[in-house]
Amino acid sequence: MVTWQETLHFLSHCMPGQVVKQLRGLKEGELREIRVRGGGRILLLTAEGTIVCPFAPSQQQVSQIAEALSEHALYARAEEQRSGFVTLRGGHRMGICGRVICQGQTVRGLREISSLCVRIAGQWRGAADRLMPYLTDENGRCLSTLIVGLPGTGKTTMLRDGLRRLSEKGLRVSVVDERSELAAMCEGVPQLEVGPNTDVLDGCCKDAGLRWMLRAMSPEVLVTDELRDALDGQAVLEAVRSGVSVLATAHGRELETALCRGTLFPLVQSKAFDRYVLLREGSVGEIARVYDGQMQPLDREEGV
Amino acid sequence: MLGLAGAIFCTLAGAAVGGALKERQHARLRLLESESEMLAQLRIMLIEERMGLGQLLVECAALGGDSLFARRLRYAAKALDQEPLGGLERAYGKASDALPLYAETREDKAAMLHLFRQLGNGTSAMREQAVAAAMRRLKPVVEQARKSAHTGGKLCMQLGVLLGLMLGIALW
Question: What pLDDT is stored for residue A89 in this prediction?
C-alpha cells in the first residue's frame, strides 16, 4: 500500500525545492491537490486550506514537472492525455491543460502544457462505512450500485473502500481499472488496498475489460470507475444480465440529470442497478441520499 | 650490442603504437555497432512497450550487457531517476561526462547528445522518428568504421612496425 512517506518521496523528486519544503510540513491525509500554473504560484490544497508556495514556474517548468511526474512517459500516454488526465504512480491523477492540437472535431494531442492539477489518491479506510449497509442484501449478496457525485466528492475513494470490504467478506471481486486509479497497480501488485479476494485488470478499457473479467475470472462482483459512454453502459448491462453484481461510479450533481444521460439511461430503463448513491456536493465522502432500483429514496436523507 | 637492443626496442615500440591505433579503430567500430543495436532496440521499445524513458534506457542497456554504451545508458537512467526535473538531455550529458568512451569522436558524442535532446521531447511518433534518423546517420558511419578497422587497422600496425624498424636501423 502507498504510504504518505512514499507519496512525499515521489512528489519531492518531481517538484521544485520551495514546494518540497512546504510538502514536508504536511501530515498524512492533509494534502488533497497540487495546482501548478505557468506564470502563477504553485498551490497546495489541503484539508485545512490553501498553501501558496513561493515559486512561480514558467510554462517550460510546468512541462518539466508534468514529464517528471509521469516518469517521462507522457509521450506514451497520448490516449490518456487526450481525455485530459494521466494517472500517476500511486494512483494520483494529474489533470493537464495546454495548447490542444485538433483535427476537425478530434483532439490529436496536447502541446505546451500550461497548468496541472494533481489530485492525491488516498486510502481512506472507512470511507464506505455508511455505504456498506446498502451494498448487500440479507443473504450477503452484493447489490449492483452506482455512486453518483461531482468531481472531488470521493466517489473513487468510496468505491475502493467498498470493494475492499466486500473482498474481505470473501466475495470474488474483479476490478477493471482502466486508469489505474482504483488499485494503482505497480509491477503486478496493487499499491492501494483492494482486499485479499480481488483480481485487477489494469489499463484495459471498460467495455472490453468487463467482458474479459466476466469470461476469465468468474466474479461475484465487477467493479469499475466512471462510466462514460454507451459501450461502457452496454458492457455493464451484459454483466448484470449474467447475474454478476456491478459497482460503478458516474459524474453528476443530481441523480435525475445524471441518469438521463445517454450512457446511463439504458441502464436505468433496464433496472441494471439495485442502488443509486448520491454524494453530497462540497464535501468529501458524504452520502446525500440512497435510492433503490425504482429510484425511490431509501431511509431518510443522510446527514439531515 | 647496445645499438642492436635499441633497434629491437624501436621496432617493438613502433609495433605497439601501431597496435594501439588499430585497437582504437576496432574499439570505435564496437562502440558504433553497440550504439546501432541499442538504438534499434530503443526504437522498437518506444513504439511497443510505452514505458517511461528511465525504464526504457534500463531495458535497452540490459540487452547491451556490459558494453560501454550500455553502462552509459544505465548511468543516464539513474541520473534521470535522481533528478527527473533535469530531463533526459541533462541526464545523458552527465552520463557522457562521467563515463567517457575513449573511442568516441567529438562528432559521435555530439550526435548522441542531439538524439537524447530530441528523445526527451515531443510525441511518440516524433521520438521514434528521431531515433530512426539517428540510425540512418549512424549506418554509413558504421560502414566507414568497419572499413577503417579492417584496412586502416592493418596499415597502422604495418606502418608502426616499419617505422620502428627504420628508426632502429638508423640508430644502429
Answer: 86
Q: Which of B86, B56, B81, B82 is nearest to A65 (CA)?
A: B86
Give chain A's domains with CATH numbers: 4-119 (3.30.450.90), 132-298 (3.40.50.300)
Q: What is the mean pLDDT of residues B66-84?
A: 91
Closest CA to A181 of A259, A90, A114: A90
Q: Across chain B, which distance is largest between two alpha carbons, in Å? A: 72
> Which of residues 46 through 75 in chain B touch A, CB cutoff 8 A?
46, 50-55
Work out the percent of chain A whose per-residue pLDDT is above 90: 57
Residue A175 near residue A198 (C-beta atoms within 8 A): yes
SS3 state at A35 = strand
Q: From the list B52, B81, B122, which residue is nearest A73 (CB)?
A: B52
Q: Would the CB atoms of A14 and B85 count as touching at under 8 Å?
A: yes
User: Model confidence over B88-112: pLDDT tens digits?
Assistant: 999 999 999 998 877 788 888 899 9
**Does residue A12 belong to the interface with chain B, where contact is any CB pair within 8 Å?**
no
Residues of A in contact with B131 (CB under 8 A): none
pLDDT in tens, A163-207: 999 999 999 999 999 988 899 887 788 988 999 999 999 989 999
Name the minimum distance, in Å, from the CA of A88 to any CA of chain B: 11
Q: Give me the residues of A, 53-72, that contact B with CB < 8 A.
A: 64-65, 67-68, 70-72
Q: Where are the domains of chain B?
A: 2-171
Whether chain A has a CB inside 8 Å of the CB on B93: the answer is: no
CA A225 to each of CA A176, A210, B135: distance values in angstroms, whole numbers, following the listed order: 8, 11, 43
Averaged pLDDT, B9-28: 79
Cross-chain Cβ contact B55/A16 below 8 Å: no
Among A14, A72, A76, the residue with its CB nearest the CB of B124 is A76
What is each CA distance from B41 to A184, B30, B35, B37, B99, in whole angstroms?
28, 17, 10, 6, 22
